[in-house]
Amino acid sequence: xxQGDIIIYACVIIGAGIGLMLDQAFPGVLVGxxxxxxxxxxxxxxxxx
Length: 49
Fold this sequence. Notes:
Blueprint: H1 3-21, H2 25-43
């Protein structure tokens, strides 16, 4: 598993946890997924093909 994927999964889990606290788990997962991709692109911008 790549390090960038771990960042995405962590953001999804954190988003789901926050979403569950607000009784909206699925939107929390989607927000976490989007933030995970943005963080991954920001951190690994130089390592793209």
